[in-house]
Design a protein that fits this description.
With 194 residues, the chain is an alpha+beta fold. The protein is built from seven helices and five strands; from the N terminus they run αβαβαβαββααα. The chain has helices spanning 4-22, 37-49, 59-68, 93-104, 122-130, 134-176, 183-189; strands at 26-31, 53-57, 82-87, 109-115, 118-120. The chain has a five-stranded antiparallel sheet with strand order 2-3-1-4-5. A hairpin with a 2-residue loop joins β4 (109-115) and β5. The radius of gyration is 35 Å and the shape is elongated.
Amino acid sequence: MPSEKVLENKKAIVAQLAERLKGSQAGVLADYRGLTVEQDTALRVKLREAGVDYTVVKNNLTRFAVNEVGMSELDAYLKGPTALATSADDVVAPAKVLVEFAKENEALEIKAGFVDGKVIDVDEVKVYAAIPTKDVLIAKMLGSLQSPISALARTLQAIVDNGGAAEKEEAPAEEAAPVEAPAEAAAEETPAAE
């Protein structure tokens, strides 16, 4: 039987892992068996750049954590070496980085994942990986919002530019035309002959 200190340490690890799972928008479980140290290091660098937390986890401790947070469906995938990639900010980042890396390195095998507490299989992980990143989606959205406004601004500027040119052409014609007084006003100004 493990000592009290070891049990407390394991309980703390399970609690941290459960908290990490609760605070994550998405995560992916992967089997990293067969990756070289260089490949693993390259993967960790890519994940870090994407803001993804990546750790190798013990299946028994992970099993306690996933059951604690209500994702017991992940239990079936906790066999063999397991690495966990999670993101608190970006739903697609863990899936995108791991799936792209797995295409180049066949040794990395995606097991399953989760999004907002819902367990997803490998095919769904690949669907999430195909979604553009949050920054790309925001840029596209801003571009689509900006496009009609820019078109309106160009149209208004063209009207101003063309309208200004038309006023300049018409202005000399108006100045050259004599201003005639209305007939009634002319009759009032002239003294009546007696």
